[in-house]
Amino acid sequence: MVAITVGLTFLVALAGIFVNCSLSFAEVGNYVNMDRKSRNALDRMTRSIRNSKTLQSFDPAALVFNFDSAGTTNLAYRYDAASGLVTEEWTVAGTTTTTTLLSGCNSFAFSLYDRDLNPTTDASSGKAISIAWQCSSTVISRTNCEYMQQAQIVIRNQP
């Protein structure tokens, strides 16, 4: 009787440890996935923003860039708070292609700065863009949050 009780106690403890380790492993995988997506989104944004010709319009939830003098190639980044999506929209000669960069964003904001790094809302005088967001994802009924602290990107070709 004592051996069965000790054995059952050991098996219950072992099962508890296994479940806890499995949940922790799933959470770590979730963090890694969110971090990978955030880094990929930031890399894409940085590369495109630095190569843009001019910033056409600024809003804390949307940026529109021009890539050529004729205005036929444009890029827009948009945050939709209702769906939690951040999208990249390329418009080339009237054809628009939309790609989702981030999903599950709880907050997202663009900030615009002039050459002296003073905050501005005037797209024509903007030279640097700051981006900050927070994303979350749920795995096995546990919600994890991933904070992407501010990243500043200089618009190289902006006059």
Please describe what this structure looks like.
The chain is built from one helix and nine strands. The chain is α+β, with helices and mostly antiparallel strands and 159 residues long. The protein has one domain. The mean pLDDT is 87. The strands form two sheets. The chain has a five-stranded antiparallel β-sheet, covered by helices on one side. A four-stranded antiparallel β-sheet has the order 7-6-8-9, covered by helices on one side. It is elongated, with a radius of gyration of 23 Å. Helix content is 31%, strand content 45%.
How much helicity do the residues have?
25-40%
Strand order of the largest sheet: 1-2-3-4-5
What is the CA-CA span between the terminal residues?
84 Å
Contiguous runs where pLDDT drops below 50 for at least 5 residues: none
Q: Output mean pLDDT.
A: 87
Core attributes:
five-stranded antiparallel sheet; single chain; 9 strands; 1 helix; elongated; alpha+beta
Quick summary:
By secondary structure, the chain is an alpha+beta fold. The protein is built from one helix and nine strands; from the N terminus they run αβββββββββ.
Topology summary:
Layout: H1 2-51, E1 54-59, E2 62-66, E3 73-80, E4 85-92, E5 95-102, E6 105-113, E7 119-120, E8 128-139, E9 142-154
Antiparallel strand pairs: 1-2, 2-3, 3-4, 4-5, 6-7, 6-8, 8-9
